Amino acid sequence: MSSEKSGQAEAPTPKAAARGRRGRPRSFDRATALEKALMAFWEHGYEATSVSDLTRVMDIGAPSLYAAFGDKRSLFEEVVQEYGVRYGSFGGRALAEEPTARAGVERMLREAAVEYTAPGRPHGCLVIHAAANCSTAEVEESLRERRNGNIAAIEDRIGADVVAGVLPPDTDAAALARHTGAMIQGMSQQARDGASRVELEALAEIALAVWPRV
């Protein structure tokens, strides 16, 4: 006797069962939504960007945001990673690719002048500004560690040149690295305040004048 005549429901097929487990397909492009969140955090910072702001700019509902990215802090952590890959990697590349620390820092500062004033996106650096007025200690500490890690990388590069005799033996690698960090952070703030690429490039020239030579 068939199931229709007996009143018993037919068992779902394997394909139907798999569709049920997967649920409804995502109706938005995740990479596009992440980029929109990145721009929002970059422009307004972590604290001032609410979940409702994010759902509006990402053009998704809150349930979709939580399902795809987790909570606001998890989304921000992914944004910072994405920013480092797409927009903030120029400093590390400069240090790695140039033959000396001075050449690396020179390239870093010049590229910062370009990147921090690029049209069509927020000015300055997300890692420097996103935690402004932030009451979430974990977010503030995470960004601080990134900034300090960048300064430590510069110090290591300078120290290697001191050992190699490229820089004088009495070069204060820590102070010179912190000076570079201060310039990068200052250029970022200046860019947000409206400084042009040419104006920031002039600052880079002045910053390089303090570097010692053998």
| Rg (CA only) | 25 Å
Q: Quote the average pLDDT.
A: 89
- General shape: elongated
- Total E-strand runs: 0
- Total helices: the number is 12
What percentage of amino acids are in beta strands?
Answer: under 5%
**Which sheet architecture does the biggest sheet show?**
none
Pairing-aware structural class of the strands and helices? mainly alpha
Run of helices and strands: HHHHHHHHHHHH
Tell me the span between the first and last alpha carbons.
97 Å
Low-confidence stretches: 1-12, 14-25
* Helical proportion, percent range: 55-70%
Keywords: DNA-binding, Transcription, Transcription regulation
Region (Disordered): 1-26
InterPro entries: DNA-bd_HTH_TetR-type_CS, Homeodomain-like_sf, HTH_TetR, Tet_transcr_reg_TetR-rel_C_sf
Pfam family, one: TetR_N
Can you characterise this structure?
Residues 27-87 form the HTH tetR-type domain. InterPro entries: DNA-bd_HTH_TetR-type_CS, Homeodomain-like_sf, HTH_TetR, Tet_transcr_reg_TetR-rel_C_sf. Residues 50-69 bind DNA. With 214 residues, this protein is mainly alpha-helical. 68% of the residues lie in helices and 0% in strands. It contains 12 helices and no strands. α7 (90-97) packs antiparallel against α8 (101-115) and α11 (173-192) packs antiparallel against α12 (197-208). The chain is elongated.
Short description, anyone?
It is built from twelve helices and no strands.
Could you name the key traits of this structure?
DNA-bd_HTH_TetR-type_CS; mainly alpha; HTH_TetR; Tet_transcr_reg_TetR-rel_C_sf; transcription regulation; 214 residues
